[in-house]
Amino acid sequence: MGVDCDPAPLRVWASNVPDAKAVLTTLGPNCTDLELPPPAPDVHVHLSPPCQAFSRARANSATQPEVQSSLELLRWSVDLVLSRGDFSWSLEEVPVPAVRLLLQEYAKLHPAKVAWAVFDCADFGCPQNRQRLIAGPPAMIRKLQESPVEKRISVREAFERAGLTTPSAFFKNNTTNRDKTACTRSIEECAFTVCAGHGLTWAADREGSTVSVMTARQSAVLQGFPLAWKIPSGSRTGQRSVGTSMLDLSNKSYPCPTHDLPPHSNTHPLLTGNAMSVELS
After folding, report:
1. What is the DSSP letter of 276?
2. Exposure winner among 15, 32, 160, 210, fewest CB in 10 A?
3. How confident is the model at residue 261, as a pLDDT?
């Protein structure tokens, strides 16, 4: 089951996972039309509350009401799985101080049920540096922390594995260094974080001379999507859907009290902020 408040990515997600149920609704305290399967050892709930108000890109523009609203939805998400008594669950967010403080509060109140840590997806074999706070049962977080660090995958390797070529030997993001020079990397390195608002840009040299903006399909390669995965048409819509996706950190099973759940990387890609996915093994 996949739940999202935005019909566009939800419909594309449903076309990629035809055996799953897609539910269009807005999650939160006023959500009364969502029927989830009852908690069971073979049910995993993944929550992805919106991060826009917390992101660095909006650090100077997000209003206090927007931040508080996002924190309330984050609190609602954790309260949901605790009140349901779910055996296996996970939540991902950007690791900003406000989010860390809230999760610290829950971990202190419920030490046997809630734990969290910050992970870089590059350590799990993803071709980009993407730090995310992951919360869940202590056994799941401990298993992720105990996972061996994978070999770093470069942009070149990721594209070669997908059967694609890179347009140039360098790329950049839309920020600058302190000396006002472009933030560039070689394709022999991991990518910068893929964002929803703007794709990374291919560069001709270390100085950052622009070649072209990465397409949504190219961004999808850096997010770990197979080429067969459908993405929305239109560069803006496609980039937004790819950039807000949740990466499966390990491609390994998440533990629950009775047995290990299968990998659920095919349940939550292309679900945007304010999203949820539920998997039954």
Report:
1. E
2. 32
3. 29
Give φ, ψ of 277 to 5 degrees. -135, 150
Cβ burial 41-80 (10 Å sphere, 16+ → b, else e) = eebbbbbbbbbbbbbeeeeeeeeeeeeeebbebbebbbeb
Report the distance separating Cα 37 and Cα 260, nearest Å.
Answer: 18
Cα-based distances in Å from 280 to 10, 133, 260, 267 = 19, 24, 12, 10
Q: What's the CA gap between 109 and 102, in Å, rounded?
A: 11
Alpha-carbon distance 139 to 257, whole Å?
Answer: 9
Q: Write down the pLDDT at residue 257.
A: 29
pLDDT at 7: 83
Contact 137, 256 (CB under 8 A): yes
Extract the residue ranges of the chain whose pLDDT is less than 70. 51-62, 246-281
In this structure, what token pair is assigned to residue 127? 């071709």
Burial class (CB within 10 angstroms; exposed 0-12, middle 13-18, buried 19+) of 92: buried
Which tokens is 84 given?
A: 């349901």
Residue 4 and residue 275 in contact, taking contact as beta carbons nearer than 8 Å: yes
